[in-house]
Amino acid sequence: MATEYALSQWKGYPAYPAFALGQPRFPQDSFTGRYLHFKDIIDWKTLFATKKDHTRAFELLERWKVGERGFASDEEMWKAQKLKQSTFHPDTGEKIFPAFRMAGYVPFGWITVTGLLLRSPSTATMIFWQWANQSHNALVNYANRNASQPQPMSRYLGAYGAAVSAACSLSFGLNFILKRFKDMPKSTQFIFQRFIPLPATSLASSLNVLCMRGSEVASGIDVYDREGNVVGVSQIAAKQALKETTLTRAFLPVPLLLLPQLILPKLEKLPSIAVSDKRILLLQSVVCTASFALSLPVALALFPQESTIATSKLEEGIRAKTRHTELYFNKGL
After folding, report:
1. Where are any strands of DSSP class E within the chain?
2. What are the residues whose beta carbons fall under 8 Å from the beta carbon of 218, sequence distance 6 or more?
3. Do 281 and 300 form a contact (C-beta atoms < 8 A)?
4. Torsion angles phi and psi, residue 230, rounded to 5
5. Nearest-5° angle of CA 181, CA 186, CA 187?
6. What span, in angstroms and rounded, lies between the C-alpha atoms of 238 and 243?
7. Helix, strand, or coil here: 254?
8. For the chain, what is the mean pLDDT?
9. Strand segments (E) across 114-241
C-alpha cells in the first residue's frame, strides 16, 4: 500500500477523488494511473467480503445511480465500486468464483507457478505443472472474458482442450530438444532448464487467450458510447480486445518467471539455505509469490480494461448509427 500511496502522491492523484459512477478511480491515460487502478481492484482482501458487504455495496451504488447524494463519503463510494468490479462480471453481472477472479489470480495461482520453477523437473513433472497452470489460466480467461455476446459452452470446452494441449506440447518439445544435446555442459543444461518455462509459458499463455476467446472475433463484441448506450456489435473491436489481452498474457510470465530464476540461484548458495531442500522450496514459493504479485498489475496496466476505438475504424453499419468520434468496449482481463 505504501508503494501505491507514493505513486499516487508523485503523480498528484488524490487518494479518493470525487466519486464518478462507472469510472476508474485513477486516470487511465497513463501507465501509472492504470497500474494504480488495477492494483486497487485486484486487492486480495476483496476475496473475504461477505454477502452483507456485497449487498451494502450494491445499495450504495444504486442510490447514487438514481440521483441521491450526501449519504456516503467518496471513500465509501469508491470502495463499494471496487468491491463490485473485483467480484462481479461487468457484462453478465454474475459473481465470479474466487479462484478465477483477478483478485484471486495470485493467491490461487502461486502453487502452479512455483511448480513451473522446480529444479531439474522430469518431463512428466514439467508437463503436469504446465497443464495445471494453463488450466487455471483458461478458467481465468473464461471468467474474465467479454461476455456481451453469448457463446455455447461446447466452444469453450474445445478451446480449453486446444489451449492446454498446445501448452503441454510446447513444454514437452522444448524439454525433449534440451535432452538431445547431451554434449552440452551440465551447467549450460541447467541454465536452459531453468529458463525453459519462460518462453513456453509466455507462448502457451498467449495461445490460451487466443483459444479461449477467439470466438469473440467471429461473433463480435458490444461497442458503446460514453453514456453506456450500445451502438452496435463489432468484430473489429473484438480483434483489438483479443490482441491487447494476448499481449498482456504474453508479458505477464516474463517478470514472474525471470526474476525468481535470477534471484533463487544466489540465495540457494547461502549456507543456511543450501543444507535444506525444504527451505529452498519455501524460499522458492515466497519469491515466486512476490514476483507474481508484482507482475500482475504491471501486465494488466499495459492497456486499459475499457478500451477506446475511433469510430472511423469500425464497421460501416456502426459508423452510420452514431455521431461520436470514439466508442468504447470492455477488453476483458
Report:
1. 221-224, 230-234, 306-310, 326-330
2. 235
3. no
4. -70, 125
5. 120
6. 9
7. helix
8. 82
9. 221-224, 230-234
Q: How many residues does the chain have?
A: 333
The 8-class DSSP code of residue 95 comes to: B
What is the per-residue burial (b if ≥16 Cβ within 10 Å, else e) of 264-293?
A: beebeeeeeeeeeeeebeebbbebbbebbb
CA separation for the pair 84, 53 (Å, rounded): 10
pLDDT at 6: 61
Average pLDDT of the residues in 76-80:
95
Q: Cell 465500486, residue?
A: 81
Question: In the predicted model, is pLDDT for residue 197 greater than 90?
Answer: no
Q: Which residues, other chains included, contact 307 with Cβ-Cβ below 8 Å and sequence gap of 6+?
A: 237, 240, 241, 244, 328, 329, 330, 331
Give backbone dihedrals phi and psi of 182, rounded to 5 degrees, phi first: -70, -25
Least confident of 33-47, 150-164, 275-289: 275-289
For 230-269, the pLDDT digits (tens) are 999 999 999 999 999 888 888 877 776 666 667 766 666 6
Question: Pick the residue with more confidence: 115 or 4?
Answer: 115
| CA end-to-end span of the chain | 22
Coil, strand or helix at 88: strand
